Amino acid sequence: MGDIRRRGAVALGVTALVTPLTLALGAAPAGAASCTTQVGPYQKKVEKFLGRPADGKQSAADCEAIRAFQGKHGITPAIGYAGPVTWGVMDLMNKQKAVGTNPNKGGACPVNKGRIACVNLTLQLSWIQDGERLVYGPVPVRTGRDGYETRTGLKRIYWRDIDHVSTIYNVPMPYSQFFDGGQAFHSVGVGMWNPPGSHGCVNMTKTAAKKYWSLLKTGDDVFVYGRKPGT
Question: Domain L,D-TPase catalytic, which positions (predicted)?
């Protein structure tokens, strides 16, 4: 995760990782080529999310569709099992979509600070507002995993480094904007729903991180609130 002494590697999660499925569940080991025939506890919900017939029965086509989703978002083992981690990612996506263009509907992020970057850990969303006016976003983000939580509260951007590299993990952190003891906004090369999460930084896509870089400056406020699922 990000840090002048960056705790930084890149790694989101919306729900706590569970112990990998075992052969006792009828699942193949991680990395195996075959699909599981096991019906997962979230089978119908996962099928519906993927636009599959929501009959609650695992078919070969269901498994391949689930596996493709898991592979895209770094969910392991990617064997097509409709388990809690897979559904957790999908459920978060649904909740993020439902926010629409009014991310501060409940007024949790201060509207009396002028330009401010808001981070909702519960929904893994961030945006920039100026008073009550939405300036940019909301965009999905990837915050600290369990044990490396992104700290909550009102902060301020104190240092920016467009080509920062973590001094701990020697990993690039492009468009870094530090706001709290080494925690920063910065871009990463993994998906925003990739579990289990960062080492504390607020990970963003390159597009979002570049936009934040252009809209924010040293001294601007940052407000982080909520709690990331699984932490």
Answer: 114-225
Written as one letter, the residue type at 10 is: V
110-225 is classed CATH 2.40.440.10: yes
- Residue 193 per-residue DSSP state: T
199 is catalytic: no
Q: Which CA distances in Å does 107 have to 39, 151, 152?
A: 41, 19, 16
pTM: 0.84
Question: Which positions ≥6 away from 97 have C-beta within 8 Å?
Answer: none
In degrees to the nearest 10, what's the CA dihedral of 27, 31, 32, 36?
Answer: 30
Check if 186 is active-site.
yes
> What single letter denotes the amino acid at residue 77?
P
Q: Which of 73, 164, 186, 199 is catalytic?
A: 186
pLDDT band at residue 167 under the 50/70/90 scheme: confident
Instruction: Decide: helix, strand or coil at residue 11.
Output: coil
